[in-house]
Amino acid sequence: MEGQKFKARFSTRLPNGDFLGITVWPGKSDPNAEVLTVQVRHQTGQDWETVGKLAVYRTSDGRFSLLPERTQATSAPKAEAVA
User: Fold this and answer.
1) Residue 57 in contact with residue 48, Cβ under 8 Å?
2) Beta carbons within 8 Å of 26's beta carbon, 6+ residues apart
3) Residue 24 belongs to a domain
4) Residues ≥6 apart with Cβ < 8 Å to 44
5) Which of 50, 67, 71 has the alpha carbon at shortest distance from 58?
């Protein structure tokens, strides 16, 4: 969903320090439809990682369906020091 503007976003910090968030996105082919994403993010060192995610599609007539999990695109390899 990169490049799109979300309709709404809410988050709260959980007792263990993780964040629980929900974001509402407009539908791509139907602007009256919505995609709701819920995710839990956990801090590991300096980075945050998504440890759980759920996406639901709501059609313009109000029907809901679970979206399949998207596979992460492979990122560029990280440079490592060679001993």
Assistant:
1) no
2) 4, 5, 7, 33, 34, 35
3) yes
4) none
5) 67
Q: pTM for the complete prediction?
A: 0.75
Number of structural domains (the chain) is 1
How does pLDDT run across 54-66, given as a tens digit for each residue?
999 999 999 999 9
Instruction: Please indicate, yes or no, if residue 19 is contained in any of the structural domains.
Output: yes
Total residues belonging to the chain: 83
Nearest alpha carbon to residue 63 among 37, 34, 38 = 34
What confidence category does residue 11 fall into, taking pLDDT thresholds of 50, 70 and 90? very high
How does the average pLDDT of the chain come out, rounded? 87
